[in-house]
Model the fold of this input.
Amino acid sequence: MALVTSTQMFKKAYDGGYAIGAFNVNNMEIIQGITEAAMEEKAPLILQVSSGARKYAKHVYLMKLIEAAIADAEQSAGFDLPICVHLDHGDTFELCKSCIDGGFTSVMIDGSSKSFEDNIKLTRQVVEYAHDHGVVVEGELGTLAGVEDDVKVAAEDSSYTRPEEVEEFVSRTGVDSLAIAIGTSHGAYKFTAAQCTRNADGILVPPPLRFDILDEVSKRLPGFPIVLHGSSSVPQEFVKIINENGGKMPDAVGIPEAQLRQAARGAVCKINIDSDLRLAMTASIRQYMAEHPDHFDPRQYLKPARANIKALVKHKLVDVLGCNGKA
Ligand SMILES: [Zn+2]
Done:
């Protein structure tokens, strides 16, 4: 099977009350861990690439690795693994065009830091080019706080999506899906201590997502796929392993998985997960290094790291996204 767009994935996800996982990739072990999990769970998949990941690994390596994952699923399991390759946070027309020309099946144009009119203008330009080439486009309204690769937004500059803007934005741009800001945040430090309460174990508890905004947006855009960025849950068991093995990540906190599951039941069709993959990999490598100070073959610590990513992704597909068995 060739790469697919997210059009059919989102339609089925919307009607079926689940969401597709959009996992960020930048090397072979991460791609293998994610795709093996999707293959075993028979889950449709979005692999997304940020401009930072593209600079790190080079476009051609990532495309060939993803093609290899599809070929491997077919050869080893006789399974057509549906994969959509998506540009995460494209910030210029040129970057989007380069990814479209290079074989991506979906791009995001993030004009959320611009004025409403400039966001529409830029997004419309990308949509025209993308649709001419059979590629779908995700736009964004509202601004998420946090740090992810080249995207850095201070909490005071973030803003929730204004539901009264979504219909005009979608109709004037022609986007295929829309990322909205309802209180998720990029990175492993999604909230400051001042924004949270603490539970009995001293772990930060973040403010709940603004489901009222999501409800209002989905009422105004019936049947239209909504996207959540910054939706890692920052599993505390990984943070603990990292901190117990030489790491220093105080107060790392994410979005509770029960809230993401709730969002996936409604109009949210795509949930972005990046930080959790990084934490799974880093926790595994830190623990391995601490337990085996004499080992120096990268395969020795990358093998359990890859297995940890696979286990995490399986959990997300089944318990958070609900997209297992939907491919
Ligand atoms: Zn994002």
About this structure: DSSP finds twelve helices and 13 strands in the chain.
